[in-house]
Design goal:
Elements: E1 6-12, E2 25-30, H1 36-44, H2 49-52, E3 62-67, E4 71-75, H3 86-102, E5 106-114, H4 121-132, E6 137-142, H5 155-166, E7 176-178, H6 187-198
Parallel strand pairs: 2-4, 2-5, 5-6, 6-7
Antiparallel strand pairs: 1-3, 3-4
This protein binds guanosine-5'-triphosphate and magnesium ion.
The site of guanosine-5'-triphosphate has 16 residues, from helix 1.
Length: about 200
């Protein structure tokens, strides 16, 4: 399940511009600052791969990274930017929804949730939307090394209450993994999980 090689392939601004080679892919989704880039860098054990292809502007939205020449990690823009205009948010959401609903090679969405803070409405909205639309999802809880969340909460409590709040929108409880890009917690578990989902 280890990653030997990662290549940046392309940034696409529409789902139909994404690679058409049929290789399986995992989309990395989550709030800005949740630890998306850090997780990708930790997974591939390269410091800045997720940053090197990051181009500003909302037209450069879907970044495909080819792993071991056989499957993709897809970096999506963070949602919930406080500074993004309302119209930019709308564009983001219709664009991303189109990708999730139409991308046939999507194995699963890895939805990153910051376990060091109490649950956020925007994360719940996102998780509920994915659940209602039967999009396969794995919850990846980030920053689990931070033992004290805000308001006296802790990662395990935050995770439990998050799962409780989204439960009714899922037929089955989605898989979930606790991670830390600082300690490496969950890295191998997540790689193994992804290899099981894609069957190789
Ligand atoms: P955007 O690119 O703005 O969407 O953010 P992002 O989701 O890519 O987050 P990024 O990886 O840049 O991390 C945001 C901040 O959280 C940085 O200061 C990281 O050092 C910190 N961070 C990320 N992962 C962890 C983690 O597992 N533990 C701790 N303690 N801090 C983390
Ligand atoms: Mg980032």
């Amino acid at each position: 399940a280890q990653i030997k090689e990662v290549q940046f392939v392309r940034s696409s601004n529409r789902p139909k511009d994404c690679p058409k080679d049929g290789r399986p892919e995992f989309a990395i989704l989550g709030r800005s600052n949740v630890g998306k880039s850090s997780l990708i860098n930790a997974l591939v054990k390269k410091k800045e791969i997720a940053l090197t292809s990051k181009k500003p502007g909302k037209t450069q939205l879907i970044n495909h990274f080819l792993v071991n020449k056989s499957w993709y990690i897809v970096d999506l823009p963070g949602y919930g930017f406080a500074k993004a205009s309302e119209s930019a948010r709308m564009d983001w959401s219709s664009f991303t929804k189109g990708y999730f609903l139409n991308r046939e090679t999507l194995v699963a969405v890895l939805l990153l949730i910051d376990a060091s803070v109490p649950q956020q409405k925007i994360d719940l909205d996102c998780a509920n939307w994915l659940g209602r639309n039967d999009i396969p999802i794995t919850f990846v809880f980030t920053k689990c090394d931070k033992m004290k969340g805000g308001k006296g909460t802790r990662p395990d409590e935050n995770i439990r209450s998050f799962q409780e709040l989204i439960r009714q929108n899922y037929k089955q409880q989605p898989p979930w993994i606790m991670t830390s890009s600082v300690t490496g917690l969950g890295r191998d578990e997540l790689l193994l999980h992804m290899s099981q989902l894609r069957n190789f």
